[in-house]
Design brief:
The chain is 47% helix and 19% strand. With 332 residues, it is of the alpha/beta class. The strands form two sheets. It has a six-stranded mixed beta sheet, sandwiched between helices. The chain binds succinic acid. Succinic acid binds next to loops.
């Protein structure tokens, strides 16, 4: 009996020792973060910050690999790739979630937010936070919003008033609101991947596009567009997203630490975004490669009057209460 007991004790100790040994040598969890922009953009810098924080705080447990510039997946494929487990983190623009939820289309409505502070207030409000959850029924988890900034209009031709855009072809992200916005200008919208924009502009297959100062600068769109109208007519922000399967499968302590690192990285990225919307605009002006057009109050009002009727078309889809909450965020 005594012999039997000590054999059992030895076996238990051996199993315990082996399992601690195997966890000591366990492979770290690989977290692939895919995005489409350059590494020096707000999103690119947020991703690098996240990688660094994870390396510092979850050493040996998690390794972050970043795939920028659409190296691995374009935004139109990355959400599918998340669900298949081919990547684990992405942050597409809010305009690219149409297949997963129509509610995020609210963020594309032209002239909805007066400035980035209003967009931030709405995103952090109860209504804004509830929109993060709209992707959950499709197996995704919205971990937070991140800013890029306000969009500007660029074109071969100088755009002072909406009438100047008539008949021109503009590249847009895959959003029906953005399509309606350009149709309101009697222009032709073309949904094309971000990776194709430079070539489409360079070869004059399209006349113009809309984007933030940081994207126009980092992808050199200003080198192939003679004019950029400083219109601030819409928002280009992101949702950082993962798959429920991956996120819920993580050990609790790892998940908590990753979320903390991500929140800090987003706050850092938002600061970069605010700085870059000024410094990249200035760099573009200083380059003298393009003509940056500042609108008079009256000219801007014409853009608002032409584009804002688009809201009515999407009110039922995004919800009247949600729209009212977004409008209300313009007041501090
Ligand atoms: C991005 O900022 O992630 C890309 C935006 C675009 O497709 O224009």
């Amino acid at each position: 009996m005594k012999i039997k007991m000590s054999v059992l004790a030895l076996a238990t100790a051996a199993v315990f020792a082996l399992s601690s040994l195997s966890s000591a040598f366990a492979e770290p969890i690989k977290l692939k973060f895919s995005h489409v922009v350059a590494e020096n953009t707000p999103k690119g810098q947020m991703a690098t910050k996240f990688k660094d924080l994870v390396a510092e705080r979850l050493k040996g447990k998690v390794v972050v690999e970043i795939y920028p510039n659409g190296q691995l997946f374009g935004d139109n494929k990355v959400l599918e790739a998340l669900l298949l487990g081919d990547v684990h983190l992405a942050s597409p623009s809010l305009s690219k979630f149409k297949k997963y939820t129509k509610k995020l289309q609210i963020f594309d409505l032209p002239f909805l937010f007066n400035d980035m502070a209003a967009a931030e207030r709405f995103q952090q409000s109860e209504a804004g936070q509830s929109l993060l959850k709209t992707v959950e029924k499709k197996g995704l988890i919205g971990l937070g919003y991140m800013h890029n900034g306000m969009k500007q209009l660029s074109a071969a031709k100088a755009l002072h008033t909406p009438a100047d855009a008539k008949g021109l072809k503009f590249r847009i992200m895959s959003s029906d609101v953005l399509a309606a916005q350009f149709e309101a200008l009697a222009a032709t919208p073309l949904k094309k991947p971000y990776s194709e924009v430079f070539t489409l502009l360079q070869t004059k297959a399209i006349d113009g596009q809309e984007n933030t100062w940081s994207n126009i600068h980092s992808k050199k769109f200003y080198e192939v567009q003679d004019n950029i109208t400083s219109s601030d007519h819409g928002l280009l922000d992101y949702m950082v997203v993962t798959s429920a399967e991956f996120w819920k499968g993580l050990p609790d302590d790892v998940r908590t630490e990753l979320k903390k690192a991500l929140d800090e990285s987003i706050a850092f990225g938002n600061k970069v975004a605010a700085e870059k919307s000024k410094s990249d605009k200035q760099a573009i002006i200083d380059s003298k490669r393009t003509n940056v057009i500042e609108l008079s109050k009256e000219e801007r009002q014409k853009w608002i009057d032409t584009m804002q009727p688009v809201w009515k078309k999407f009110e039922a889809i995004v919800g009247k209460d949600m729209l009212d909450a977004a409008i209300a965020s313009n007041k501090e």
